[in-house]
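Lecture 7 notes: from sequence to structure.

We start with a single chain of 102 residues. Read the sequence below before looking at the structure.
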Amino acid sequence: MKQLIQVYKSPRKDEMYLYVDRKEDLKRVPEALMAQFGSPQSVMVIPMTPERKLARADAAEVLASIQEQGFYLQMPPPKTDEMDELGSRLAEYCARFDQDPE
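Now the structure, written as tokens:
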């Protein structure tokens, strides 16, 4: 079964999104969550089925969460320290050339 889902982004936290049933909108979202989320900014309305491919969430999990609690909150992905990652790659690369070919 297809369900229309309204997606909002948070103005306070980059890459945080709130998915709700379009008919119910934000009625079932707890006030405490809305206070942390900030004034929701509409991003899109999407028809969703459990099989739909989403970039960072499982559609079946999103739909189940909306049915059970009235919303699905997509948190930002964990940030990696890009400089540490770059440094590790550079060290690995340099180590290849430091090895004695004999």
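The mean pLDDT is 88. Keep this in mind for problem set 3.
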